[in-house]
Each structure stands twice: as C-alpha cells, then as structure tokens.
Design brief:
The protein is an alpha+beta fold. It folds into 3 domains: about 220 residues, FAD/NAD(P)-binding domain (3-Layer(bba) Sandwich); about 160 residues, D-Amino Acid Oxidase, Chain A, domain 2; about 100 residues. The protein is built from 14 helices and 23 strands. The strands form 6 sheets. Strands 9-2-1-13-21-20 form a 6-stranded mixed β-sheet. Strands 14, 16, 17, 18 and 19 form a 5-stranded antiparallel β-sheet that branches. A hairpin with a 6-residue loop joins strand 20 and strand 21. Helix 11 crosses helix 12. The radius of gyration is 23 Å and the shape is globular. The two termini are about 40 Å apart.
Amino acid sequence: MRTEVAIIGAGVVGTTIARELSRYEVDVTVVAGEVDVAFGSPTKANSGIVHAGYDDEPGTARAKHCSRGNELWHKVAPEVGAPFKETGSLVVAFTEGEVEILWELRRRGEKNGVPGLEVVDDEALLRRIEPRLSDKVIAALRAPTAAVTSPYELAIAMMENAMKNGAKALFGAEVRGITVRDGGVGELQTSRGDVEVTYVINAGGLRADEISAMVGLDCFTIRPRRGEYYVLDKKQGEVTRHVVFPTPSQISKGIVVAPTVEGNVLMGPNAQDIDDKEDTATTATGLREAFEGAVKLFPMLADGKRFVIANFSGLRPEPNTKDFVIGSSDEVRGFVNAAGMRSPGLTAAPSVALEIVGLLRGLGLALRPRLDFNPFRKPMDRPMREMARCEAQALIQRNRRYGHVVCRCEHVTEGEILDAVQRGASTIDGIKFRTRAGMGRCQGGFCTPHVLRILASQLKIPVEEVTKKGGGSAVLTCRVKEMLRRGGLDG
C-alpha cells in the first residue's frame, strides 16, 4: 500500500488532522491499531470538556492551542454534526486563599486570549448561576466559552467528514516499525502489511513516544496518568448547569462535576501516575476520591451512589516535557509529532491540526486546495427518542425496523443500529458509540443479545465471533443452542 501522508492514531487529534488535510489534494491515510475510530483510551474515556483556556501557563503550546481550539470547535463541531453544548464552566473557591487563585487564573486566561472571564463573589448571584452548589463556596471564576461534547462521537464525525473528502483509513493495523531511508521516513511496518509513505504524523496517544523511538527520536517519554469516573443516571441530570471545577492542583484540574451532552452527570477524574499503558482498572480508592470530590462541590450528591449507572477509568498521555510535543525533526525528514496531547488535548485538536498542516507545507508537501471540499457532514438521523410522536410514526411507516426498540434505556431502535452498521460499526462498542445502545441504566443488560444478533446477521458471521471492541474481546465464548434460543440469538 502507498500513501503520501500517514496519520498514526484515530483519536480526536488524529481524525481532526485528517479532516484538516482533506481540504487539500493530498493522499491521506489514518492508520490505527484499533478496529474503529476513538477506541484508544485518551479519546473514548475522555471527559468531553471543551476547556476555555485559562488554566495553562501563557506562552506554552497548551495555552496557545487551548484557547484557539475552543474558538474553532464552536464552528467546526456544528459543521460535522457532532454533539456540542455550550455550558460554560465555573472554578469554585472555598477559602480566601483559593479566591486569590481564581484571580490568578483570570489574569492567566486573559493573557491567553480567553473572552468573558469574570470572578463572581456575590453569593446571591452565585446561587442564581448554580443553585445546587455547596453553600460553602464563596466565589467562582466563570468562563462562558467552555462547553461539553461527546469525545467518541466527535472523532467519528471528523473521520467520516475526512473520508467523504477523500481521506482513507486502515484500521486494525498496529504500527510495529518505521523504516528510515536517506534521512526520511520510508514505510510503516504494520500488522496488516507495509505502507509506503512520504510523511508521518505521530498522533499515537499513549504510544506516541514508542512511535517516535521507531525513527530514532527519543526526545520525550509518555507516562499514563489514570483518572477514574462515575456516570450518574439522567434522573440526576439537573444537578449542575455548568462544568464545575475545584481550584486546580499541580497535577490536575481536580474532581469535576459536569453535565454530558446526553443528559447524564459525570463525576471525576482523580489523577494517578502509573506505569502500565494498558491498566484501565478502576479502584476502590480512586472511585472514593472521585465521589468525595464531587460531594464537596454538590453536597446533594451524598446519596448519589444509588444513581450511579457506570464507573470507568481513562489514561491520559502525560509527557515528561510538561507540554504538548508538536513539531518536525531535522534528523528524520517527513516525521511530525502531535504527541503528549493530554488535557486540554481534545480542546486543542483543531488548532493543533492547523499547525501540523503548516509544518507539512514547510516540509515541502504540496497543498492545493480541494475545490470540492465539503466541510459539512450529515450526522445519523436524529434519535427516535428525540422525535415528536408524529415524526416517529411517519418514520416507522416508512421502515418498520424503526418501530422495534432494541435498547429500552436509551430508546434505540433496530433501524438506528442498522444505520450505524452502514456507517462502519462492526463491534458492540462501535454500535454503542454511534447510537448509545448499552449506555443507559442497565448498561446493556437488555439490549446486548439483540445487538449481537443484528451484528452477526449484518456482518455474516456467527454470533460467537462478534466482539466488544475487536481483537480478543469476543462476547460469547461458545455456542449453547438452548441458551441462545432462549436469549433470542439463534437464527
């Protein structure tokens, strides 16, 4: 296989770079070890917060790209039909010392170009802004440009739009080596064969340091930082209107309570540096830390555990440079890093993509604008759960599969699952990320057998070959005919 530009990594950063490059007449391929978009931990287990940009030290790459990325997402997310909700954020203070930190964050944010920042220290106004906030909070930094999105849906949307404009994808292709010829990149060795390349963009997330080392560059290392979360049922969706942070620490923005675009509440994450890049386990200690931090912000959550529908952990790629690693190398021509993209990496992605395109131009890549570039992507049809009764009935009359509810918690129908398969979903998680089937209160307890049956039928494989997320993640290990018949899976 031959491609002019290979982007390693199919998370938010890699897919956003692909979408930006698809504006030009360039042969671009996204190469990913996972079997689908957004299956890597930094994206799929991301909080989905689009940060305003006041937290990072002025002059750093994080500060530059966060504030500009926030501005760009307000335009780009609607273009590609990705969920995006402008909530604003609050950083709250419980002591006078923390109030001083709020003022410092405001000064920092203003240097970073963040608009509309204000410190609110009027108690009555604070309660009007966020009625359920702890009465021990004495002030808050308000950032109106902060927002929330769905990280995996955002990456899927960017990849779909990039592919509509000519980009390609090679999934299930773990990069195992990179050949350097005459001082420049020559080919990728992947688990699906070799790929001849001229330029390589390293957006490899947790493995970005390993990928850089494949071409002989060891200028940075990545250590995973684990964060653990709780997800609350939509019945608790009115807890908070804003993304609410405590005052930040040296290593973390702290335990956050945030609304999600789907109407749930997210609590977390904590921050723990670990060594294993595969260790996404949750721990009693970490979850307790997340819960206690959330209750400090919103005491009404003290009995919130009865509303918990899921807990999970994600790994952030923390570079030893303490900043994003973005740039090309004089030592290996054509190799460009977009690495160390921990928080606010999602926010920064469209700004980073613009810088990467500029770097490629400087390296000699011919960038002729594509005259037929279409920035808009038609999302999946609006979920049945959001339709008016008459609208839903009309759709069911056209196709009765939209009248068969598969996921009761999220009201996802067979028709919507078939649409997701048509768009590339081939696993349980692929269906989940595109439709929310399995994300409700029962966490797939009811719908998983039905999703298995639909996937097996559409992919023309036995049900025991359907996987959760590709690789060795088969959901069923053997065929027991009577059990399958009772579960509705046989035939």
